[in-house]
Amino acid sequence: LKLSGAIQAARWTELPDGLGYIQSFNGAHSLFADTMRSLRSLAIGHQLGHALMGERDRRISLLQRLVQHADTNARYNVYFGEGRDSYDVRGRVAHESIFNTNDGSYRCPSSQQGYTPFSTWTRGLAWVQLGYAELLEFLETLKDGELKPFGGRKQVLARYLAAARATADFYLECTPSCGVPYWDTGAPGLVHLGDYLDRPADPYNEHEPVDSSAAAITAQGLIRLGRYLEAHGQARAGARYVAAGLTVARTLFAE
Question: Which bin fits 126, alpha (ψ -120 to 50), beta or left (φ > 0)?
């Protein structure tokens, strides 16, 4: 478990302004949204007291790389409806961000498994939503001093809560009533399905597949996010997410 966290942290691209990310299999230029799931390994390695040893025995904190990756992912792969570009819809997720490895500058969104960089691959969205919900829980186990180098507990939690809620809301808005999404929000065949968001998903339709794995991942993420909010004085909002997550889970078990 210790080595797994260190190995993930070693797949690293440094960016300006204290940011950086765990590289995808495409190479140093590529940040995948679904690499959020790798942060579990860094969290466990940090909890076990491990670190990555760099050149000249430099001790590299797994917690630092976890926070840097999560911050970079939120800045570039998650959209917050703040006018970033024409496709800036709150909660939308680009599967991949491409960077210039010479100077660390952002180049463009991309996608390997989604339909386009300008739509949302729902399994990538699911990993992002669950990833930030898990981080909210993990950060609760840390001492305040451990988070001070990253702006302090309050600021770090606020950043990740914003990402978790934005992606959760987008998922609920862009998913059929049963809670199981189609594989991409921009999949071209959806145009043939009429008002597909107002009824349960049809896994037997002739145009686009549903993604039950995205639903299973997000069910967990919604419940975790809801429980977190309930524990922090936001009972109404928390109950909404928990109820949505249970709806998705019931649909999957029923099938």
Answer: alpha
